[in-house]
């Protein structure tokens, strides 16, 4: 995607119906995909109002129009449920702001796609779990999110990234990146490549159960890392699930697993010191309990039994995606230093190895949580 200048950003901002005059715009958040800015406006009454401006990554999301249609449908659906439950739809879900001519996004002359969201004030966005309770709360919220969308007409959702969590297909992409070895980087990652290749047989476990009709397809978020949820700064409760770009039909394991890989780790996703990285079983337990509570009995016995596999496969899959991107020259995930994607892949594989060692304990925790709720 092309570089952004102030003029390009300001032209985009001018297309949206925003209240007051722009005081400041600054890059915001730690997402790996979109370009996100915080806009500060002075309102006619002298107050301040904030918005989130995002340039959607159209190299990754090939059809931004379909992506925004999904977002509008899902958020309008959620707004109604939130309002009916006496909640605040302006804070408990995302709210896309319309352009002056009523559209939900703007495409500029340089083929950049823009959207504006209401900024949700007085919230915390966590990059790492600070307490077991936060993680438990996030689990209830992600479980609830899935349950709230259980009657959403799934056939109306576009697949914004085909095969997003199809691990066998991700494995083929990874192998192709190893074979291409475009930049001669494979020699820097021999151990990691071998680790990934050795686990090919695991990749199809969940997709096979889906094909055989043994696991149900649901509407899932598909990108449930902790920084895709906002906590209320006053109550410290999980408030709003954000980053709805990948809401699509999927398995509950995708949401469960992606949260575990990010939140149950004892270190950051890009930690260089691997001795700091482990999958914390007490965090695993807190999340499992919260997720089952949030799903409120909607998961089948086999779905629950396979949750540890969701954790392992989502972690493995993210690892091979980071590693493939390292080999391809860092064209997908934003990086902030040399070898960043390799560092990220290493933490994921360390977690996978740790989960393999703790496999029996993970299964026992899932069983215990299920029994507690029965
Ligand atoms: P990416 O796809 O790049 O991860 P996100 O949509 O997750 O982009 O946004 C990046 C970050 O911006 C989030 O992690 C969060 O900190 C912040 N953010 C996004 N939307 C909002 C919002 N409506 N209100 C407040 N903060 C937000
Ligand atoms: C990306 O958009 P963001 O930063 O929340 C990625 C996820 C990865 C995650 C790894 C659309 O999430 O799939 O798990 O990075 N999103 C997309 O941190 O590819
Ligand atoms: Mg995000």
Portion of residues within helices = 40-55%
Series of H and E elements: HEEEHHEEEEHHHHEEEEHHHHHH
Distance between the termini: 51 Å
Give the CA-based shape. Answer: globular
Number of strands: 11
Radius of gyration: 21 Å
Mean model confidence by pLDDT: 97
Largest sheet, strands/sense/barrel: 6 strands, antiparallel
Helices, by number, come to: 13
Q: Specify the structural class.
A: alpha+beta
> How much β-strand is present in the residues?
5-15%
| Low-confidence spans | none
Ions, cofactors and other ligands present here are:
adenosine-5'-diphosphate, 2-acetamido-2-deoxy-1-O-phosphono-alpha-D-glucopyranose, magnesium ion
What can you tell me about this protein's structure?
With 374 residues, the protein is α+β, with helices and mostly antiparallel strands. It contains 13 helices and eleven strands. Strands 1, 2, 3, 4, 5 and 6 form a six-stranded antiparallel β-sheet that branches. Strands 7-9-10 form a three-stranded antiparallel β-sheet. A two-stranded antiparallel sheet has the order 8-11. A hairpin with a 7-residue loop joins β1 and β2. α11 runs antiparallel to α12 (340-357). The mean pLDDT is 97. Adenosine-5'-diphosphate (ADP) binds next to loops.
């Amino acid at each position: 995607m092309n570089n952004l200048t102030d003029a390009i950003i300001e032209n985009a901002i001018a297309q949206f119906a925003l209240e007051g005059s722009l005081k400041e715009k600054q890059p915001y958040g730690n997402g790996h995909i979109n370009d996100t800015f915080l806009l500060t406006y002075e309102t006619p009454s002298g107050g301040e109002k904030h918005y989130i401006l995002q340039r959607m990554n159209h190299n990754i999301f090939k059809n931004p129009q379909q992506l925004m249609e999904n977002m509008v449908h899902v958020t309008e659906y959620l707004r109604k449920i939130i309002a009916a439950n006496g909640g605040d739809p302006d804070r408990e879900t995302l709210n896309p702001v319309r352009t002056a001519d009523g559209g939900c996004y703007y495409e500029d002359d340089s083929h950049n796609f823009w959207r504006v969201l209401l900024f949700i004030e007085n919230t915390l966005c966590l990059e790492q779990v600070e307490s077991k309770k936060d993680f438990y709360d996030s689990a209830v919220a992600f479980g609830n999110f899935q349950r709230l969308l259980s009657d959403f007409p799934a056939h109306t959702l576009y697949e914004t990234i085909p095969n997003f969590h199809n691990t066998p297909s991700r494995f083929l992409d990874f192998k192709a990146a190893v074979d291409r070895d475009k930049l001669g980087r494979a020699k820097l990652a021999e151990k990691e490549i071998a680790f990934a290749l050795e686990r090919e047989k695991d990749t199809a476990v969940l997709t096979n159960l889906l094909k055989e009709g043994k696991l149900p397809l649901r509407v899932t978020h598909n990108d449930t890392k902790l920084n895709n949820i906002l906590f209320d700064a006053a109550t410290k409760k999980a408030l709003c699930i954000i980053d709805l770009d990948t809401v699509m039909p999927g398995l509950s394991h995708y949401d469960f697993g992606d949260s575990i890989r990010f939140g149950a780790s004892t270190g950051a996703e890009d930690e260089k010191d691997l001795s700091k990285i482990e999958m914390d079983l007490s965090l695993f337990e807190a999340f499992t309990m919260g997720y089952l509570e949030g799903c409120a009995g909607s998961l089948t016995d086999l779905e629950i039994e396979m949750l540890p596999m969701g954790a392992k496969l989502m972690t493995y899959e993210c690892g091979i995606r980071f590693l493939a991107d390292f080999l391809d020259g860092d064209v997908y995930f934003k990086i902030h230093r040399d070898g960043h994607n390799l560092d990220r892949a290493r933490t994921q594989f360390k977690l996978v190895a740790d989960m393999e060692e703790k496999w029996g304990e993970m299964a026992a925790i899932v069983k215990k949580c299920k029994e507690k709720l029965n």
